[in-house]
Amino acid sequence: MNAGETSGYFVQMSKLVVATIGVYGASLGTFLDALLGADVTLLVDVRQRRGVRGREYAWANSLRLQAALADASIEYRHHPELAPTTELRQLQYLEDDRLGEGKRSRTALAPEYRRRYVEEVLDRVDMGAFAASLPRQHAAALLCVERDARACHRSLIAERLAREHDARILDLLP
Fold first, then answer.
1. What is the DSSP letter of 146?
2. R_g of the chain, CA atoms, integer Å
3. For the segment 139-162, what is each residue's pLDDT rounded down to a tens digit?
4. pTM, two decimal places
5. What is the DSSP string of 53-110?
C-alpha cells in the first residue's frame, strides 16, 4: 500500500462512556449489578476518605469494595486529586444544615461549593490525561457516596468530561 492509500478498513475508537454511581441506597449486589449492566470495567473512586460509616455500607469501604470489584472483573482506581477538600465538604455541610438536608437526602450542590470545587479542584487536574486513561471499549464509573449524582461532586467531573471530551454520561441508581 502506498502512502496516502487506505485499505478500506480502519479501527474506530468508541465514544467515551462515563457512568456515575453512589453508595447510598445500594447493597453490594445492586451496586455490582448496576455496574455490570452498564458494561463498566473500571471504577474510579473520587472520594477523599474511602470509607462509609455504618454496617449497612461496610461493603463500600475501600478494601472490601476492591475485593468485590476484583471478583466481578472490574478494575479499581483511586483518584484523590478529584476529591473535594475537607474545607469544601464543610462548606456543603453548612448549606445542608441550612436547608435541613444531609448527605443521604441532599438534592443539589450549593452554588458556592460548585464554584469553588471547579476552581480549586477540577481546574487544577489534567482532565485530558484523566480522560485518556479511561477505557473506550467499555464504560468507566465515577464513585462517591451520594445516591443522586446532582448532589455530588462526581456530577461536576462528569459535566467536564461531557463538555470537553464528548463523553456520554450515565447516572446509575442501584
1. -
2. 18
3. 999 999 999 999 999 999 999 999
4. 0.89
5. SSGGGGGGSHHHHHHHHHHTT-EEEE-GGGSPPHHHHHHHHHHHHHHT--TTT--S--
